[in-house]
Amino acid sequence: MKTPHLIACHECDLVHQLGAVPPGGSARCARCGSPLYRPKRDSINRTLALTMTGLFLFIIANTNPFLGFKIGAEIRETILATGIYQLYQQDMKMIATVVLFTVVIVPALSLVSMLYILVPLQLNLVPRHLAKVFRMLFFIKPWGMMEIFMLGILVSAVKLGKMATIIPGVALFAFLALIFVQAAMAVTLDSHLIWEQLNRHQ
Amino acid sequence: MTKLPPTARRLGLVACHRCHLLCRQAEGPADCPRCGAPLHSRKPNSVARTWAFVLSAMVFYIPANVLPVMYTTSLGAVQSDTIMSGVIYFINSGSWPIALVIFIASVFVPMLKLLILSFLLISVQRHWQWRPVDRTRMYRITEAIGRWSMLDIYVVTILVALVHLGALANIEAGLGAPFFAAVVVVTMLAAESFDPRLIWDGMEDSNDGPN
Lengths: 202, 211
Fold this sequence. Notes:
The structure holds two protein chains of two kinds.
Chain A: E1 5-8, E2 15-18, E3 27-28, E4 35-37, H1 43-63, E5 67-71, E6 74-78, H2 80-89, H3 93-122, H4 130-140, H5 146-161, E7 165-168, H6 170-188, H7 191-201
Antiparallel strand pairs in A: 1-2, 3-4, 5-6, 5-7
Helix pairs in contact in A: 1-3, 1-6, 2-3, 3-4, 5-6
Chain B: E1 13-15, E2 22-24, E3 30-31, E4 38-39, H1 46-66, E5 70-74, E6 77-81, H2 83-92, H3 96-125, H4 132-145, H5 151-162, E7 169-173, H6 176-193, H7 197-207
Antiparallel strand pairs in B: 1-2, 3-4, 5-6, 5-7
C-alpha cells in the first residue's frame, strides 16, 4: 500500500494525509467523523468466495417458490416472477418495473459484475473496462433492495397467516441466506484496493 | 480570524465522487483520470435539484396515503386498504410489532426524510452555523433509511401474487401503490442529489465575513 497519500473527506471535503491503516482498521474524518478509508483483510479472495455463493443462492431464490399457502385441499405457491407478472397484468406496469428492477435486475447485475471484476483480479489480471463496470456497480447499488423484500415476505406471511396455512418455500431460505452473504460482501469488499488496480493498468 | 480548514476546494483540488482520487481542479468540465467519472467540486445544482425532488415527493405523498394501495375481494365483497388502514388492521389483529414496522417504514420514514432534507436545504441556503457534525449525521441517516419505505410495495406484490383464488378471494393493487413507489424513488433521488459538503461550505463562508 502506498503511503502516505492525500484523501478528501467525501462528506465535508477536508483533506487529510493518510498514513498506513492496518487491515481491519478504519480512518475517520477529523472534522465530521465520516469514514475515510477501511482496508480489509484478504479482500479479493473473500469477496470472490461470497460472490459465487451469492450467485448460486440468487438462482435458487428466483427459480423456486418462496411462499405457499393452503386453503382446504388447494395449495398455492408463488415464485417471484409470478408476482411481478400479475402486477403487469393488472396494469400496474410502473410497480411491476420497480419490483423487477430492485429485486431481480439490480441484485443480479451486481453479483455478475462483481464476478467479472474479481475473477481476473484473483488471477492477477486487470479486467477490461474495470472502471466502467465498477462505477456502474456503485451507481446501481442503492437500488438493490432484497433485504427489504425479505421483510415484505415476512409481513405478508403474517397477514395471510390469518386466512390460511403458510408454507415457507425453498426460495425463502435462499433469500435469507443471500441477505447475509450480501452483508458480508459489503464488509469484505475494499473498493479502494480495486480502484488502485487502475493505477497499475495505466 | 480563525484559520480556515484545508478543504479540497480551497486547495484547488477535486475529489472524484466515485473513486475518491484527488485531482487538480481543471478550468472547464473534466473527467477523473483514474475512473473516468465526471469531476465536480460539488454536486452540480445540488440545492435546486434536491428541492425539486423534495417538493415532488411531498406532492406524491398525499395520494400515496389517501388512495387505496390494495383491493381485497372476498366472496364478492370488496375492501379497499390504504397504508394507514393496513397499519390499523395489524393493531386490531394484535400484531403490534408488524404494525410498528409498517408504520415506521411507510409513514414515519418518508415524512422524516422529507423534513430532514428540507431542514438541511434551508440550513445550507441560510448559511446556518448550527452543529455541522450533527447535520452531516442527519444526512447520513436519511441516505441509509429511505430505501426501507419500499416495504409496502413488496407486501402488495407478494399478496397480489399469492391471493389469486378467483371468486373466493382476490387481491389487486390500488392506485395509491404507484404513487407510494414514486415517493420512495423520488426521496431516494433527493438524498442522492444533496451534497453534504455544502453544510461545511456554509460554515467556512461566514468565517470569511459577511457575503
